[in-house]
Write a structure and sequence with these properties.
single chain, 84 residues, mainly alpha, 5 helices, 60% helix, elongated
Length: 84
Amino acid sequence: MFGHHTPTDRAAILDEVVKAYGAGIMSLETGVRMLMDAGYPVEDAPEEIDRIQSRAFAAAGLLADATGDNAAVREYLGLPEATP
């Protein structure tokens, strides 16, 4: 059994996060936490995740296609409820 793998420099950690998140084997929350631990200037992880998701239009489109739920898409993007 191998021990825990921890890259030692910020560039390696960023590369690891980008690859793992992009491959779908790491959550955005874990990736942001790893970047914070590496010294990236993220002060509030949930707030950072909200900012990332508010600009993730391709992911929002996939969510809309998968669920057909426009309210869920608006919530994901951090938009207010639609008015009738």
